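Format notes (please read before filing issues)

Several people have asked whether sequences and structure tokens are stored in separate files. They are not. Every record keeps both together, in the order shown below: the sequence lines, then the token lines. Line labels are part of the format and must not be stripped during preprocessing.
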Amino acid sequence: MSDSLDSFSGRDPHTLSPEIIKKKKLWRNLFIFNLCVSILLIGIFWVPLKFQQVNSFLAASSVNIPDKGEITQNEKNLRTAPQTSNLLATRSLVIDATSDEDWAYFDFSRGKQVKIMDASSLEWDLAFRRGRIISNGGASNKFGQAGLIDLGEVDFDAVESVPDRKFILDKSTRTDTVNPILENWYKYNYLTHKLTARRNIYVIRTADGKFSKTQFLSFYCADKNSGCIQMRYVYQHSGSKSFLKDDAGTVSLISTEASP
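Then the structure lines:
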């Protein structure tokens, strides 16, 4: 490159004095030396720091998972905060969906995970298997009335009634049955391979035609294993489309149900 510059300036590089050539070599060597020092410093200080940050990120959960026996501050608030409005009581529970083969069934009317011998019965409303959730209706059970409406990311307490919208039923695929809404209840991180529950609120019509508003909160167990689906919900047992109580002066406490 120096030869081309000398040629461009009209000077023959072969006529340069030994002193000028020596200076050019010195500057070139200084440049190479500085470049090597910079690369070395990056390798010593910057690269290990970035590796540490990446490892910390990969080891971190996509949700805030408490240690075994602990609960998060949000869960403490969920369990103890009084509701001073006219809303029906909100319940919270964890579904054990850790099995890769067996479905875990949940019944809103009983407020707990139940054992089902006949999947065509109306004794269950939602079924869980790992990250999959189906409802008791449509292609999953022609006798069930279950279906869902996705309200998006709205305030849970602001949903006071069932909207006048179409319920989405389970449908058949080539290999299984799915509910188009429940297929998207979580976000998947392809870098960490972890699931994060969306903040969406779902209005659910149960197998026997009652109504619930539900939000899925987490996919992870207290010991940080996966397959424990935490959810909160309000269930209207009367069949009314309202999630409000009749007595506006009554204060209800948020209660917690544990899976068996």
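For reference, the curators noted about this record: The helical segments are 2-8, 18-59, 73-80. The first strand starts at residue 82 and ends at 83.
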